[in-house]
Amino acid sequence: MSGQDNTEASEKRSLNFIEQKIERDLQEGKNAGRVQTRFPPEPNGYLHIGHAKAIALDFGMARQYGGKCNLRFDDTNPTKEETEYIESIEQDIRWLGFQWDNIYYASDYFQELWDFAVWLIRQGRAYVDEQSAEQIAQQKGTTTSPGQNSPFRDRPVEENLRLFEYMNSGKAQPGTLVLRAKIDMAHPNMLFRDPLIYRIMNIPHIRTGARWNAYPMYDFTHGQSDYLEGVTHSLCTLEFVEHRPLYDLFVDWIKEYKGEADNLQDNRPRQTEFNKLNLSYTLMSKRNLLSLVKEGLVSGWDDPRMPTLCGFRRRGYSPESIVKFIDKIGYTTYDALNEMALLESAVREDLNLRAIRVSAVLDPVKVVITNYPEGQEEELTAVNNPENEADGTHTQTFSRELWIERDDFQEVAEKKFMRLAPGREVRLKNAYIIKCDEAHPCDKDAEGNVTTIYCTYDPLSRSGLPGADRKIKGKTLHWLSCRHAVGAEVRLYDRLWSVENPRDEMAAIREARQCDTVEAMRQIINPGSLRVLRGCYVEPFAASLPALSYLQFQRIGYFNVDPDATPAHPVFNKTVGLKDSWQKQRG
Questions:
Q1: In 3D, which of 167, 274, 256 has the Cα closest to residue 214?
Q2: Alpha-carbon distance 275 to 417, whole Å?
Q3: How far apart, in whole angstroms, are the C-alpha atoms of residue 109 and residue 131?
Q4: How confident is the model at residue 583 (pLDDT cuts 50, 70, 90)?
Q5: Distance of alpha carbon 77 from alpha carbon 43, whole angstroms
Q6: Calpha distance 101→452 (Å, rounded)
Q7: How many other CB atoms are found less than 10 A from the CB of residue 439?
Q8: C-alpha 10: how far from its chain's center?
Q9: Would you tell me how many other CB atoms lie within 10 Å of the CB of residue 141?
Q10: Measuring CA to CA, which residue among 192, 158, 152, 154 is closest to residue 176?
């Protein structure tokens, strides 16, 4: 799609500031009218929903403007990077509905970056510093006072070249030597005060092996990789605003290195910053998420309470609902805290259109229909999804003995209780109207718990028959045939954190109690974030569905089939309730 075609298509809505910038660049003919973006994750953990916003933007802008988006792994820190994370990132991007044009790695450019650094040394724009990290930090100065030059700043070029080679020899110790760009120790932007561009690590790399012992820093890698790759629009979050001038300077330098000093403003990546996705009751620091996993506070990266994309997938969130939520909150130049309830609303809206309706009873009590013939069974038709006729139907068996939810019956009914009670009628979904016996409504055990409810049915009231039109005051209840129901485990998930802003609350706890991060986490984890129910029942159709199928347990909420499920042991995860119950609990 051309920029002009997109302009016409987007007249129906307002363009966000990034779209406006891209369209302006296209109109001005920058980068030969190309749009190329990239998604550059570091493979040091699993992607979370915050990354989904960047994915939707990077891939979405390329798709919208007929360009391309590459996946580029920022693999410049071999201490934290693993193949497992690379594979999970690729899976998550595909799950969200996007596909990269090419896969690149920052390590693809290590040789070119090294040669570029050598050129900078020869140009007198970089030098090897032997000071410790503490000494370098002390000499940086402050935002109101200039820094001090390193005593090694004017080291001869040949000596710098020799030491730079030594940094990569495997013989130099980490922390003893760094390569710094020579810019301006009095610059008002602290990042310009001779930033580090190479450090010694002496750690094998997952892709390059033992070839490198000195590795480039992020600021020295990011912009140059964008340039070498042909990126036109580098879209970053707001913390990179102050990095942009340094990004531009390094791009100018590498263009000069490549012989493009006469056209520095042409054919170059342009950085634009947008706000992160912040969610209430959510913590998205990879470091803290790793602590949750390592300390066993969650079952793993894909625990359905985690904000990771694999966690949301396992919980039953659809990728479409996440992308729609991101579109709804939009992109701005200021940070804000978005309500988790808004995301859950988007999930309900989407799952209402795609979830298969099934019957499940989570807290069962038996109903015996005394006037229904013993041994008789009926196959009743249930619509899979009233929102989509193409989803078809399935059958549900009706019999004399049924399971219903325990809280759908009251022996002594409250005034506004409209479900089953002595002498009252209710309709069973897709089946008959039943009436609870007044003389002997139920049996109880020794503790007074109801074990069996006795009812009669109206044989002319089956759904689809003329008698089904009979009006009653009672509600419609879901049910299962006792003989045919399948036992299941149901996991009820809620917010992992009990406070709206866990990051700030953890910091306050750590300061007040002088404790570590894990102990602070334990103080604010929601004790009701997971309840495992056993002794539940589902209809056989639900038990036969594949893992991650989207379901609506009628009258209860949205669920999905957990990957742990087997035919002999079905397991279902609660995705979200039919209504927002959290706000009601807080209120």
A1: 167
A2: 48
A3: 28
A4: low
A5: 9
A6: 62
A7: 7
A8: 28
A9: 15
A10: 152
pTM (2 decimals)? 0.92
For residue 517, give both structure tokens: 């991060």
pLDDT digits (tens, 9 = 90+) for 129-142: 999 999 999 999 99
Whether residue 186 contacts residue 146, with contact meaning beta carbons closer than 8 Å, is answered with yes
Beta strands 337-338 and 278-279 are parallel
Nearest to residue 313, comparing CAs of 137, 458, 97, 471?
A: 97
Question: If pLDDT is split at 50, 70 and 90, which confidence band does 581 have?
Answer: low
For residue 6, pLDDT over 80 is answered with no
Q: Which of 18, 14, 12, 2 is nearest to 64 (CA)?
A: 2
- CA dist 73 and 106 (Å) reads 6
CB 426 within 8 A of CB 475: yes
Locus of tokens 């069996």: 452
CA 197 to chain centre: 32
In whole numbers, what is the pLDDT of the chain averaged over residues? 94
Nearest CA to 557 among 409, 392, 348, 405? 348
In degrees, to the nearest 5, what angle opens at C-alpha 431 toward C-alphas 426 and 434?
30
Instruction: Enter the tokens of residue 87.
Output: 């594979």
83 by Cβ neighbours in 10 Å (0-12 / 13-18 / 19+) ranks as exposed
Question: Coil, helix or strand for 171?
Answer: coil
Residue 176 and residue 532: Cα distance in Å, rounded? 54
- 527-575 tens-digit pLDDT: 999 999 999 999 999 999 999 999 999 999 999 999 999 988 999 999 9
Distance CA 463, CA 360 (A): 20
Collapsing DSSP to helix, strand or coil, 531 comes out as strand
CB 317 within 8 A of CB 303: no
Per DSSP, the three-state class of 409 is strand
Joined tokens for residue 457: 């049915």
What letter would DSSP give residue 14? P
Give CA–CA dist 218/224, Å, rounded.
Answer: 10
Q: Which of 505 and 467 is assigned the larger pLDDT?
A: 505
DSSP 8-state class, residue 13:
S
Distance, in Å, from the CA atom of 222 to the CA atom of 468, rounded to the nearest integer, reads 68
154: amino acid identity, one letter: D
Q: Distance between CA atoms of 18 and 232, rounded to whole angstroms?
A: 13
**Which residue in 180, 221, 173 sits closest to 197, CA to CA?**
180
Q: Based on the number of CB atoms within 10 Å of its own CB, is 9 exposed (0-12), middle (13-18) or buried (19 or more)?
A: exposed
Q: Pairing mode, if any, of strands 433-436 and 530-538?
A: unpaired
First to last CA, the chain: 49
Q: Which tokens go with 381?
A: 């038709």
Of 229, 355, 336, 344, nearest to 582 (Cα)? Answer: 344
Strands 68-73 vs 103-105: parallel, antiparallel or unpaired: parallel
